[in-house]
Predict the 3D structure of the following.
Amino acid sequence: MIVLNATLVAVTYMVLLERKVIAWAQSRLGPMRVGPYGILQPVADAVKLMIKEDITPVRADPWVFTAAPIISMVPALIVYAVIPFGPEVRLFGRQVTLYITDINVGLLYIVSVASVGVYGIILAGYASNSKYPLLASLRASAQLISYEVAVTLTLVSVIMMAGSLSMVSIVRAQQSTHLWYAFVQPVAFLIFFIGGLAETNRAPFDLPEAEQELTGGFHTEYSGMRFALFFLAEYANMIVVSSVATTLFLGGWLRPFPNVAFLGFLDVVPAWTWFLIKSFVFLYIFIWVRATLPRYRYDQLMRLGWKVLIPLAIANLVVTGIVKVLMV
Amino acid sequence: MLLSTALFMIGVIGVMVRRNIIIIFMSIELILNAVNINLIAFSAQLQNVIGQVFAIFVIAVAAAEAAVGLGIILAFYRNKETVNIDEMNVMRS
Amino acid sequence: MAQAIAFYFIAACILGFAVLVISTKDTVHSVLFLVLDFLFVAALYVLLGAQFVAAIQVLVYAGGIVVLYLFVVMLVNLKRPPEAHQDPRRRTMLGFLLAAAVLVELGAIAVYGYGQPAPIVAPAAAMPVTGNTEQVGWLLYTSYLIPFEIASMLLLVAMIGAIVLAKREL
């Protein structure tokens, strides 16, 4: 429950952060009116979206139209169940684990739950019963499916390194080898990052919601709370991708350079702070990339996915396997 | 067991009764799922993991079947603009 | 007790959604119910202690196969509903009769099976690893290596076949 609420608050503030950062990148000020430096803007946005009229188009499929935002929101939230924010901590004299569960198929769980999220987009496009959303949702789902292959292949190489599917054991494995996997697996890390950008439909891969071509993308026909759900799902997915990347490649809650002894004074900082800092850096890069890079063309996107990333990921996997066998 | 049998029967009825070939394919998926439930149930009852291994093989075969089947549907639809199996009675077009 | 309640609830959901899958008029709704059905089957697997297969089930079925179905339904984009076309030669009753015949056969097998003494079950071979995922992986790569490779060949053939079939012109 706490994680859920924290996520939702984090998501709303992500929106503000994004607007601010992009504004700075374009030397503007961004939202300034609500509260000092606009820090109450998310609250105002949330209230506005909740009290706005919720319109269902006449020709839409009413049931599917209602279900689609929920379907895209739920997977984005339940993934947090397996993400370890930190190790056990003592809180008010009780032993508290900073992760909800540690199931032994954790990583597989994340991948499969994330794959269910595609339905929200496809169904939104279908149920709106209008041209642009349909086109956008076909694009989005094709993009998601093709990049999921590359991302999953990089995850497999991480699993080979750690020898476990459990998120907590993966972090512990990085602790025992004294090295973040981002340094052991730089190629996988890069592919995961690009794939993560594409899977969350972020720029430069935000073709499904390319304003210039498709008006608003698959949620063109949505308004009010349902639109808000899609919006939240997108940002929640961004946070998921960055926390998964932190866990797998940046050593989760471990401090920087866990192998260097004289940096031991860094241990006074609580472990979960490192996790939050790393995730935040990731999110910042996401926004930075959006403000900096132009959008890809659709055929370029597909070519990049299938002809560059997937072969690279497979090659990386093979090399990892060979090195692993030779080292034993 | 009963659950799996019932699911199997629903699948069989679906194959027999519906005319939309896509729904017939989905019924076949249901049948395969019924088989899988049975395999997993026995694997749990006998404390033996082999059932789960076979369930994975069934899933792989189902994936292959779905890919080829849907390819055939698309090719057929392009020729005849229908997905009604009653009109699929011509071997050459 | 709680496990029994969970089992009956999941079983009821599976059957209910299965009926909806084959009885709904709208194909897209049908596909949706299929997804729900698969998710509940995955929940059943977790209940039966097969987490790895459950994850694979969600990943392959819900994430892969059904998305494929949804794509085809959208591409096919029916101009007229296929059920509207009535073929006089088609007999729906015959379908139910044949299904009933299959049911009778299954029942016969079940009765016959109860008549036999229960087969002596070989105890599961001792495995060097523990944990559901590890055990499945161990079996796949030792005793069942050849079927595993054949399955991968089958997938490769299916992939090529699907591309050839769906391509507009060769």
Observations:
- The mean pLDDT of chain B is 73.
- Residues 22 and 83 of chain B are 7 Å apart (CA to CA).
